[in-house]
Amino acid sequence: MEALYATTVGMLTACSIYLILRGRSFPIVIGITMLSYAVNLFLFSTGRLVMNELPIIGNQASYTDPLPQALVLTAIVIGFAMTAYSIILAVRVRGELGTDEVNEPDSSDAEGQR
Amino acid sequence: MSLAIIVLIPFIAAVLPLLARQRSRLMITTLTATATATSFGLLLALAPAVLNGETPQFFATWLPSLGLDFSLRLDGLSLLFATLILGIGLLIIIYAHYYLSENDDSGRFFACMLLFMGSMLGIVTSDNLILLWMFWELTSISSFLLIGYWFHQSNARRGARMALAITGAGGLALLAGILLIGNIAGSYQLEAIFAAADEIRSHSLYLPALLLVLLGAFTKSAQFPFQFWLPHAMAAPTPVSAYLHSATMVKAGIFLLARLYPVLGSTPEWFTIVTLTGLATMLFGAYFALFKTDLKGLLAFSTISHLGLITMLLGLGTAGALLAALFHILNHATFKAGLFMIAGIIDHETGSRDLRKLSGLRKALPFTMVLAVITSASMAGVPLFNGFLSKEMLFVESTEQHLFGGLSWLVPVLATIGAMLSVAYSIRFVHGVFFDKVATNLPKQPHEPPLMMRAPVILLAMLCVAVGIAPMFFAADILSAAMTIVSPYSFEVDIAIWHGFNLPLLMSALALIGGVAIYANRDELLSFSRQFEHHDAKDVFARIVKTVTNTSDNLMNRIETGSLQRYIAAMLGITIIFVLPELYNIVQLDGGREHMPVNAVSIVGAIIVVLAAIGTAAFHHQRLTSLMMLSVVGLMVSLIFIHFSAPDLAMTQLVVEVVSIILMILALFFMPQRIPKASSGGRVARDILLAGFVGGIVGSLNYAILTRPANSISEFFLANSVSGGGGTNVVNVILVDFRGFDTLGEITVLAIAAAGIHKLLNNLRPFMPSSDVDGRPWHRVKHPLLVQTVSQAILPLALMVSVYIFLRGHNLPGGGFIAGLITAAAMILQYMANGVDWVKHRFDYNYQTLASVGVMIALFTGLGSWVFGKNFLTSWFTHVHWPIVGEFEIATAILFDLGVYLTVIGATLMILANFGQMTTRHRPRQEKH
To answer: Membrane spanning segments where (chain A) (predicted)?
Structure first.
């Protein structure tokens, strides 16, 4: 299970990095959003993978680590704020410059075609 | 205390000339001179004590953590230099008053002058090496301002830049050297460094420290091969040249050598480097002084030569040589300042400094001629003038050293040759200007300058003669006080004019005769010298500077292409390079913790996540498809959370996912509809490679963590959640209680992000397509009836659920974050189903206020605990019995959670509702003020 989990996180990271390396703003925002999923999963897993041990004090013998969960919960909300901010920024840039190209127009990479 | 005042007066007084700019020049000069004289007077008042062997000190802590304190001392060496700085400074100020024309801004001139004077005083009185360095840099800056005083002349600007570049670079080297020394000695205070002298000399870092310090000293004192800046600094007004380039600034390097001699000196390395540099500089300067046609150029090269002489004496480092060096510092300052002033007078009166034009001025300027003869004789080392004494002491020392083994005889021979050249150019100065036939084509008709312009020169010339005749009476006290500081050996100050017929006297005679002979045959020598191609130092310097800037420009252009993609790729590449070796060092990735068995559900889930993620990346040109794939990933992530015992996370993720996908679909409306062409193959390959590496690293790290035993601090939270926080949902208790401060910060960030978005949307001119890419118009039914009906039915249900989730949050999965998001999602549904107008009509509420009220509630809940004398955010709870509900808990934490709840609603709706309004008449606009 651990290997499966780690592979999933690795794949999510790889796909999001690929998206972040695109030259248009929308794929980049999608990439950032996905990267935040990967990061959240990574942080969450520092409490190790535990099944059926909810961090609710009750009639259980043991509990999973609640601290990473608390951290990730706020991270999810902050991640949303960041996604929202970057997508609105992309819209604003598109409105101001008329393009969603992220490179400088005169840079050697900016063929305007990615 | 008065020591600090002496040093600070020039700095404070530097504003006076600027303030008095509108007043008469006399007023400005008087102010400057008064300040200098006050400082000088205070110095003289302290002088007797210093001469008696006391060392007045001043100490004030400044930045003790850096080893930097404002600590000053006035020992013999400081006194010698401080006297020169203030004494000659005073004369220069008087002279400058007559030298500057009406058109020159004398306020600026005197302000810079005072700044420079204070910096120099700081150098020579610093008791802390870092403080010394600071003043050192101040002299570089103030001399830059002074050299570039006539900034409308391009050669003045160039000369100033060159001086700043060279001395500034040397200053940095000096700082490095000082840091090394201070590190070895454990302190930057001079006392401690002197005490650690042996340790420093035997330390393995001695040589680097020595080289760095020498680099600083040699650049400042224009020693070979850094001598080239000094002649170009002659573009400065002549009083500046007289002050900076004879008496003070260039002496700072010499001072540093003398100051650190007890620490760094008397080693073979010191001796070899310093002596040879001095010797080379002396010969180089003397030779080129002979051919300069500009009066100030001649004096500049002669200054280089004499500085070389002093450096060489400091290098030899015997007691006699040190004494000779100190004595020559004094003598050189007197005659060279005088000579520069004479050059200035000639320039002022005739309008020219060109030796080819000037001649026969003895009739027109008889008085000046007498002064020129006296000071030049002193420079040439004619008996009965002060220059003679120190030069003869040099000859004595050069014959007595045996430091170069069988080649030691070279030193006195070369010293004699240097002295011959010195005599030759001194004759040239006098003979070339004042004798031969009377010049006719001068720009001005020369006549004697005002008395007060000559007075400083007269005083200096008198000193030359007085010290030359009675050295023991005038100079012995201060020299012996300075010697006690510099010389680690026992010494005796005994300067006599007549030592009988001996080798040094013969050398002096040879130098005089040889000098006359060289001058007589100067034309042959000149044509000989013309055979060689002389590179102008200015061009070489300019070329070096140009090469450096071009190279860095090219480098910058290559690195900074304006392509963000390339920057990110480079950053990732560098990260990989740094992380890979660390990963290699782990040896074994599997940490040995017991693995959890894999079940079928997990495998299917993982496959879906991975495929969806790959799909998101692969279909990124088809944006809507890509977005749908992303939402699959998000939902699967939420399932992963619930699978691994994190219900709170799952709920949060679920709602956030819904909200952000809605937001992105909205955004898609404003994005270009045309699908751009694919990237080139090479770029895709590069990106896949980078992405693969990063993903592999993250996955490996994750695996390494997962398979290692957990060691968490969470035991505390689990144990204290109920007793301390009054809740059984530990995650929620951590959020609102244990780590409530973090949460407060986090909702603040959320609110700020929302405010930022609000601002970004202001006055936005979005692209609003009226049809899709193929020209089909949007569907005319904006709000389908079915959705309207269902959404209206859902709203009360959703609100009830959110209240329930909110209230139970402390004990069961839920809480402010989740409840807030649910409410927000329900509201967004209303906007989507019924349109902005419909919602505005029924619920016109300002979301900014809601978000800020939320943050405020959370903040004041925290502050409330202060009222009860508790720490910030301490929570309190009790249980009450409600009639129907039963046992119910009331905790202040729930108030805090209410703040979270309101902030999340406010922020989310601020973002989405505002953005959704973009296409309607409610779109945000900048209000007119």
So the answer is: 6-21, 28-50, 70-91
Domain holding B863, by residue range, is: 735-928
Backbone φ, ψ for residue B928 (5° rounding): -80, 130
> Is some CB atom of chain B closer than 8 A to the CB atom of A97?
no
Lowest mean pLDDT among B2-11, B707-716, B902-911: B707-716
Distance CA B393, CA B379 (A): 14
| B245 and B288 housed in the same domain | no
Q: Rounded to whole angstroms, what are the CA distances from A34 to A44, B419, B636, B735?
A: 15, 81, 12, 24
In terms of CA atoms, which chain B residue is nearest residue A28? B620
Q: B66 pLDDT band (50/70/90 cuts)?
A: confident
The answer to whether B92 and B84 are in contact (CB under 8 A) is no
A86 in reach of chain B (CB within 8 A): no
* B97-111, B268-282, B322-336, B487-501: the lowest-pLDDT one: B487-501
Q: Which residue of B has its CA nearest to A72?
A: B649
Eight-state DSSP code of residue B878: E
Mutate to test the interface with B, among A4, A65, A77 (most CBs of B within 10 A): A77
Q: Are residues B173 and B320 in the same domain?
A: no
Instruction: Work out the percent of chain B whose per-residue pLDDT is above 70.
Output: 96
Task: Find the CATH number of the domain harbouring A27.
Answer: 1.10.287
The answer to whether residues B250 and B307 belong to one domain is no
Q: What distance in Å separates residue B842's CA from the closest CA in chain A? A: 26
Residue B148 lies in a domain: yes
pLDDT digits over B456-490, tens only? 999 999 999 998 888 888 888 888 888 888 888 88
Phi and psi for B880 in degrees, rounded to 5? -120, 160
Measure Cα distances from A58 to A53, B118, B732 in Å: 10, 77, 15
The ipTM value here is 0.93
> Least CA distance to B609: which residue of chain A?
A8
Mean pLDDT, chain B, rounded, equals 87
Q: Which residue of A has its CA nearest to B725?
A: A57
A71 domain residue, yes or no: yes
Domain that holds residue A21: 2-49+64-97
Contact: A7, B722; criterion CB under 8 Å: no
Model confidence at B123, pLDDT cuts 50, 70, 90, reads very high
Is residue B639 less than 8 Å (CB to CB) from chain A?
no
Q: How far is B244 from chain A (nearest CA, A)?
A: 49
Residues 49-68 of A with CB under 8 A from B: 49-58, 63-67
For A105, half-sphere exposure in the C-beta direction (CA atoms, 13 angstrom radius) is 4
- Give the per-residue pLDDT at B116: 94
Confidence of residue A107 (pLDDT cuts 50, 70, 90): low
Asked whether residue B181 falls in the same domain as residue B312, the answer is: no
pLDDT in tens, B326-380: 999 999 999 999 999 999 998 888 888 888 888 888 888 888 899 999 999 999 8
